Amino acid sequence: MHPVITIDGPSGAGKGTISQNVARQLGWEILDSGSLYRLTALAVSQDGLDMTAEAAIEAVARGLDVHFETDSGGLKIMLRGEDVSEAIRAEDMGMKASSIAAMPGVRAALLERQRAFSSVAGLVADGRDMGTTVFPEAQLKIFMTASCEERAKRRHNQLKEKGISANLPDLVADLAARDEQDANRSVSPLRPADDAVMLDTTEMSIEQVTNKVLDLAKSIF
User: Fold this and answer.
1) 44-49, long-range: CB within 8 Å, 24+ apart, which pairs?
2) Stretch (H or E) spanning 197
3) Rounded distance between C-alpha atoms, residue 216 and residue 211, angstroms
4) Which residues pair with 124 in a beta bridge?
């Protein structure tokens, strides 16, 4: 198979940032799997489809025209040639994404679509089940963790930078609840692959984590 690095882990572990850094430095493609349901919801809305029309939504998901680009400014998400990085974060897109994520046909279609991102040049896949479900044959699997408190602090700082007030204890509680839900869901629960490299980033800087993953990649590819 083509070169694949999977980076899984709970919310706030830093996998998105690290995936972008690693993909950019290796010159590989990147897959932000967490955005795909929102992208499907946006495409369905653009097409004026009924949000309960599972067969039609499945067709949209299977042919989703999406591309991820990394630059110094971060990750740019392109849908049908248009930058939708901000549009998919809208609250209504989140609600619609949650609705269609419960459709088995859509889940199956997006599993195929994710695997189609595999590239001769190499792929860094960021998500929660990349190493266990989507790319079980990946040559390098990373499972990133950090303490709930540290992840909450990171989220708190992100919100402050955006001018959004947040309560740190509430963020800790929200992340703990999210972890519990992700770990116990019936489909593709959040867990490390048997052959994943466990990486606790609690006491590590972004640069240290990036270099650690790059060193692991250089030892394999």
Assistant:
1) 44/96, 44/100, 45/93, 45/96, 46/80
2) strand 197-200
3) 9
4) 5, 30
Q: What is the pLDDT of residues 167-194, one digit of tens each?
A: 898 889 888 888 887 888 777 788 999 9
Rounded to whole angstroms, the Cα distance separating 53 from 49 reads 7
Q: Report CA torsion sign: 160, 165, 147, 76.
A: negative
Is residue 44 classed as helix, strand or coil in its secondary structure? helix
Tell me the residue type at 133.
Answer: T
Tens-place pLDDT, residues 107-144: 899 999 999 999 889 999 999 899 999 999 999 999 99
On the 0-12 / 13-18 / 19+ scale of CB atoms within 10 A, 54 is middle
- At residue 189, the pLDDT reads 82
Residue ranges of domains in the chain, CATH in brackets: 4-214 (3.40.50.300)
